[in-house]
Amino acid sequence: MSETNELAAAASSRDPAVGLRAVRALRELADRLEDLQVANARGQGWSWQDIAVCLGVSRQAVHKKYARRGFPTDQDGG
To answer: Which of 22, 46, 51, 52 stands 20 to 30 A from 61 (CA)?
Structure first.
């Protein structure tokens, strides 16, 4: 948990180099977590629409981003 606290503190640093590196690290972490949870949802039978609602994006956007990454798809794209 201290690593998380350090990252949060770095993100609010007055030094732009420190702050921007922290922002990049947070973005990469968020991307990995999203990948993990999309895989989890698809594995449990969630539709692209269900996932899109939770992520606050369109079904088409989430399908375009993940369908080519080897996540399970359905025939009607739903």
So the answer is: 22
